[in-house]
Amino acid sequence: MTTRVEQVMGLPISLDLRDEGDFAEVVDDVFAWFRDVDARFSPFKDDSEVSRYDRGELAPEELSDDLIEVLELCAYYEQLSGGAFRARLPGRGLDPCAVVKGWAVQRAADMLKAEGATTFCLNAGGDVVTAGEPEPGRPWRVGVRHPEQPLAVCAVLESRNGAIATSAAYERGSHILDGRSGTPATGLMSVTVVAGDLVTADALATAAFAMGPEGITWAADRPGCEILIVDDRRRVHRTAGLALAS
């Protein structure tokens, strides 16, 4: 059993690994990976690959395979959301963070699995990847933070071998913009998406929040996903397959 918590990429990242055995090396690699992602992909660091590309100091053919993959994901979700999700807005620099976090955490989970880890919960500021069951017959329990009460949860979800991501305004205010207008997203207080991987869950949660009320049906219609959404009238919307903990 291994636990670790570090402040990386501007948020706490925690790992609860329940497998027996020596996983010290891969755990070190996972957190080194997060530090590397922060150094290369942060739009807030002048010397990051993202910032250098945004300033025109790197040509497209000079980009790393990782950044090419991230930019392709950004383009895919921009098209899927009809432009509500955008990594680049007029008057603003390139900011792929809405894809980078989920992509980086999912990659870290894949690193753990490749080294034989079967039972863990990897949590990056409330966006979670789980594997296995911490106890036989009992899935991981993941709390979804209440959009108005920072010390409370509005739901507890069950998760086995999947991912959960939440987008809301409680951490950084109105930081999610509707890419179609460039203005802060309105109409929703919290969007939680459950999917098979965190790239999908995180990007869809951000896109749905950016879309506002129309994002409720849009997210619910995504194949293989379940949703829990609180709108600005405090109404709760959830899909029938959402696994609520008893």
TrEMBL record:
Top-level EC class as recorded in UniProt: transferase
Recorded GO MF terms: transferase activity
Pfam families cross-referenced by the UniProt entry: ApbE
EC number(s) stated in the UniProt entry for this protein: 2.7.1.180
Protein name, entry field: FAD:protein FMN transferase
Catalytic activity: L-threonyl-[protein] + FAD = FMN-L-threonyl-[protein] + AMP + H(+)
Cofactor: Mg(2+)
Keyword terms, alphabetized: FAD, Flavoprotein, Magnesium, Metal-binding, Transferase
InterPro entries associated with the record: ApbE, ApbE-like_sf
Keyword Secreted: no
Biological classification of the source: Bacteria, Bacillati, Actinomycetota, Actinomycetes, Pseudonocardiales
Species for this entry: Amycolatopsis melonis
